[in-house]
Amino acid sequence: MSKWAITYSKDNNTEKLEVEAADKPSLDDAVQRVLTYADQNCESKEPADESLDLSEPAVQLAECYGIAVTGISRL
Asked: Which of 26, 31, 48, 58 holds its CA 20 to 30 A away from the CA of 72?
């Protein structure tokens, strides 16, 4: 298993989440992993636009936590 860094932007800061996976995580997988982390460790906020589809993990991550995944790299 390789170690991977999923980098993300939150509050004008770049942070990273380290994960282990056999292959490079897809963007969808990375978003889901960061969303799971955010659900457990960050304070959620109400979305500004209630018409958005919050069933999409990337939209939920951006609107509820102010987080955008910016990269995936091997450590």
From this structure: 48
DSSP class per residue in 32-67: HHHHHHHHHHS-----S-TTS-TTSHHHHHHHHH-E
Q: Judge contact between 63 and 2, C-beta under 8 A.
A: no
pLDDT in tens, 16-39: 999 999 999 999 999 999 999 999
* Sequence spans of domains, the chain: 2-74
Distance CA 69, CA 35 (A): 10
What is the distance between the alpha carbons of residues 64 and 46, in angstroms, rounded to a whole number? 6
d(CA 75, CA 72): 10
State the pTM of this model: 0.90
